[in-house]
Amino acid sequence: MLASAVNKLGITPDGRGSQKVTSQTSENSASAGMGNQKPSRPPAGQKGFTYPDIKSQLANEESFEIPADCPTEDVDVLVVGSGPTGLGAACRLTQMNKTSNFSWLLVEESPTAGGLASTDVTPEGFLFDVGGHVIFSHYTYFDNVIDAAVPEWYTHERVSYVRCKGRWVPYPFQNNISVLEKDDQASCVQGLVESAIGRASGKLGKPKTFDEWIVTNLGEGIAELFMRPYNFKVWAIPTTKMQCAWLGERVAAPALQPVLNNLIHNKTAPNWGPNATFRFPAYGGTGGIWSAVAKKLIPAERQRYSMRVMHVDAAHKQVLMQKLDRNGVPDTSAEKQGRSVIRYSKMISTMPLDLLAKDLMRNDLLKNLLPTLDTMTLTFSTTHVIGLGIRGARPENIGDKCWLYFPEDDCPFYRATVFSNYSPNNQPTSSTKLPTIRLASKDASPVSGSAAEPKEGPYWSLMFEVAESKHKPVEFDNVVADTIQGAINTSLISSNAEIVSIYHRAFYRGYPTPSLERNSALEIWLPYLKHKFNIWSRGRFGSWKYEVGNQDHSFMLGVDAVDSALFGAMETTLEYPDLVNGRRNVERNWF
Questions:
Q1: Is 115 left (phi over 0), alpha (psi -120 to 50) or beta?
Q2: Nearest Cα to Cα of residue 536 among 368, 374, 353, 358
Q3: Rounded CA gap, 535 and 366, in Å?
Q4: Cβ neighbour number for residue 47 with a 10 Å cutoff
Q5: Model pTM score
Q6: How far apart are CA 526 and CA 537, in angstroms?
Q7: How far apart are CA 500 and CA 498, in angstroms?
Q8: Per-residue confidence (pLDDT) for residue 58, from 0 to 100
Q9: Which of 106, 178, 399, 584 has the most C-beta neighbours closer than 10 Å?
């Protein structure tokens, strides 16, 4: 079965709104389907995750046929997954259904909506998103939808820094080298000048890799001090193995004159980028947004949760589904052991593209029709999310900081978010009494006696992200302790900080890597699935484009897919990332 095959990759399903989890939780699953990912841990006996070669696994996939006696139903459009992309598709289908008569259905493996834009609540009452998520938008339609679903928001000015040699350098780093030590300033300026001369003379040429882009636009000084070490910590892959077509608005390419002007006058640059101002929901974290969208804006009868996709038979346009119980285990007590078949005319899939291709290879009728396996060259990294709930007033050096970047090797995390600054409802009230789990220092004595008795707050929280891949192994059982020590090393917390809640979840597929080979794979597989089999593979891992992987992009990938499936419209977000990122997209509205 596909379930057991996927489990060999260490993948389990996800897709949650704000819900209770166990402190330091790392969940196993007896079986897995093809939908979004549930947090997972390495197989027994392994310190970290493994990353098998996709092409070899595709070539060895066994054939599978859908049982003939399963209950069946028919829909015009089937949406698989209820993360932002699936919900974007569902919102558009709901809207179009007001004037057009067609049937559609959304299926989701998890019990609630959200996917990788979900929020968990620890037993102690701390909220943590499953990664660093904030709301900033390029689309009127997206804003209409989330405002209709969520009534209360906080708006923040981004306060973000890079930790470098004990200094807090305002983000973006390359625009603020005036804050660095003199030797580092000189090195960075030399690199910027050399790169400017190289570009002007044509000596450097057009970059092909991310590393070449860094040197061409920023120079060797900034490359060595920040860009190479930081991006390796984020992507868990060397910058020489990444392409640069994805960059767009993601990375600032500074002009030499203002950088030198700020350096001479000892000034810092103003906020840059699309998230210089961002919003965050007052309640429920990021997951609360998507739970509200699903509940308030999409008909309940069009949504089915706890339904696992077991096999996509693209030749006959049908999907084998498995009903799950509340624990995520196949409900074999139901009719036909909980299995059913949904036949569709068109499918919008948010399943990981590599797993969808792997599943399609199990149908003998398609093996000779599918693109060569050599084109399936997609890579990704795992994301560990670690959260700490801390008793006491927020330290003065933390202040109103939002998120912070860490390129150096004195901590395992590449980013830390002061999650308690986003909303006062992201942590328990001050009157809540909680025991101290541990003091931050690894050398501190165990908390016992009266010191372990529950006490009132106030409380604040930090959320950390750590990347893992075959290029950058992480020891699963040590990453929390290493993160706490890293937080001490970088002056985020003191050694005697009282930690009252600890959270840890690992997402095997965390970031879709913009590798050198990525575009050639997408240029073959995405059009092929759409035009041959009426499958629109879209979303963070469905279409594998990080440059349109934020929440607004992901949502609109689903909206665009519906317009393409129903009306043959162009999918602007997927096909023209630089266009949608460079303007305010006002063509559609949700009313």
A1: left
A2: 353
A3: 14
A4: 11
A5: 0.89
A6: 6
A7: 6
A8: 56
A9: 106
